[in-house]
Amino acid sequence: QVQLVQSGGGLVQDGGSLRLSCAASGRTFSAYTVGWFRQAPGKEREFVAAISSSGTGTSYVNSVKGRFTISRDNAKNTVYLQMDSLNPEDTAVYYCAADGTYSYIVYTPGQYEYWGQGTQVTVSS
Fold first, then answer.
1. Contact between residue 7 and residue 21 where contact means Cβ atoms under 8 Å apart
2. Which residue has the higher pLDDT, 29 or 116?
């Protein structure tokens, strides 16, 4: 069992930066792939980024490449999402999620077992 607790987020102006954190309980967190998803009002939850259990593999949706960076510190059981050059289209509730089933990065919400509580990110123009 893994519990994920998110922090960070909030309101920022267009072009600003935020960092989201996802802290996990459980001694086997280093065995899980962790992904970040987001959901805007009226839209489906979409994949944003993911990092492999070792941290050596990462993947991003095209719209955030070059602006967002996912990283993890397994000693602290924490995954981070650094978001730079934010724009209003990034406004959404962001969720972290953990997958311990697949040996590779997966991209759909249904493939992740555990979820954080969600945190609002609002980018004003």
1. yes
2. 116
